[in-house]
Amino acid sequence: MPAKLIDGKAIAKDVKNELKKQIAELDKKGIRPGLAAVLVGDDPASHVYVRNKERACKKIGVYSEVIKKPAETTAEELSELIADLNNRSDIHGILIQSPLPSHINEMDMILKVDPLKDVDGFHPLNAGHMMLGSPIFLPCTPFGIIRMLDAIGASPRGKKVVILGRGNIVGKPLAVILMQKWEGCNATVTVCHTGTADIIGEAKQADILIAAMGRPKFVTAEMVKEGATIIDVGVNRVEDPKSAKGYYLCGDVDFDACLEKASAITPVPGGVGPMTIAMLLYNTVRAARISSSI
Length: 294
Fold this sequence. Notes:
Layout: E1 4-5, H1 8-28, E2 34-40, H2 44-60, E3 63-69, H3 75-87, E4 93-96, H4 106-112, H5 124-131, H6 140-151, E5 160-164, H7 171-178, E6 188-192, H8 199-203, E7 208-211, E8 229-232, E9 236-239, E10 247-250, H9 255-258, E11 264-265, H10 272-291
Parallel strand pairs: 1-11, 2-3, 2-4, 5-6, 5-7, 7-8, 8-11
Antiparallel strand pairs: 9-10
Helix pairs in contact: 1-10, 2-10, 6-7, 6-10
């Protein structure tokens, strides 16, 4: 029997509807959550991503400000901009869109963001709070995955979760979250990477398999345990001369091959992506509530 498709768009819509109620409450107090997205350079994927975030903000009543800077912008100029945003009372969340030009160190810029406006959850202070089990903000994609699993009733509690990929944006923080004793977590977590000796054997043990490697169709049916839940974080652009666009999008999972073996699976696109944006909005609203002592 084919796996159930996990509809990230529908789950994200539910999150946004919850946020609308909180935004209405803040509005009564004269507070409008504000998000500033800083985009440096001309990376096409970044422009699309920021535009989607801007649209999502407007739909639920979050103030959105996109600040575009040329690739030649210096680290000093970007630092001054971040300092200005830190001091603005109408901006509750600051997003520094990655990647930055090679002459700017991303971590240096993240360190300059006020941790209480770090709605990406990347600041070391927020990472530390997360590690200790007392988070201020959770990174958006891992947070979205947790909410997604909860929405479909696939609790990781007591389950074997295998994460393919140890990146700072998804793999590492997701592992930290899933091993917490929180409701909807408390899993036994294995993180696989390029140094893993038997990645197929490890993946086949997973009750929940999460692919975040950035390698098109890496996960094949032989790597999937019968009845496993598969979360595909990857979004890969693969050249295709037959396509009108000249390419097609696919995840890190061979979707068609794994569809018959899994119990539930996320599509690409339409799976994890919408959840990432929804949780960014969640964090922005939370930041507004924190700044207003609500």
